[in-house]
Amino acid sequence: xxVKQDIFPGNWDGSxxxxxxxSRKRPVIMAGPCMFENREIGFAVAQFLKNKxxxxxxxxxxxxxxxxxxxxxxxxxxxxxxxQGLEWLQELRSELKVPILTDVHTAEQAIEAGKVVDIxxxxxxxxxxxxxxxxxxxxxxxxxxxxxxxxxxxxxxxIAQFVEKCGNPKIILVERGTCFGYNNLVVDFRxxxxxxxxxxxxxxxxxxxxxxxxxxxxxxSGLRHMVHPLVRAAxxxxxxxxxxxxxxxxxxxxxxADTQLSMQAAEIILDDIAKMLK
Length: 278
Description:
eight-stranded parallel barrel; two-stranded antiparallel sheet; 12 strands; alpha/beta
């Protein structure tokens, strides 16, 4: 089954998105730093990934968050905020000529982000918040919905149908692991099949799927060494995209330090993805 609709029609400045076609024959790479910590890191990672994906003939979309509202600790840094974050994202999109994706946490954020980004992402914790889904749908941009860690594939199809009823058929569903007891996630790869049954694009979030939520003494920990094997498994089943977070120095990252990939590790995985497509 192929994706049932063109994901990007109607997005502003179509010259940037016109070459992005979601296809299991050539999955799109959605990647960037977890948090847009500063302009230098964001642009360095985006330029590196754009060049590498171009070399491998893989479509590329930059992702980063300006507000990490779902943090484990009250002491955690949240990011540059809406105004500064959206300014950086708009500059990056314009200068590097790549589509961009960011997540939103309120209806107001969704409306503001929709003026700038190509994909409005609904975080896993908020995947059933109807007002947020409605606001994201109203932007006319592609709505990417992370599967809640407690949510079944069947529930995600219901959520997608709600967004469609709101007038927006441009939907991507994302697998990012399921709660398995306290502080642990497992990936049920059946979800990659089931969420595609109605023709929606399905993306595998490789780095969040290896999280150990709340297991790091006031922060989330993770199993970074499992990212590459899980990517291979997802590619074998078939997905429309691979989502992963990349940082120049992951151990020093302000968020998801135990699961983000170094640029060298990301390069190895991207090379492997390209080989698997041959």
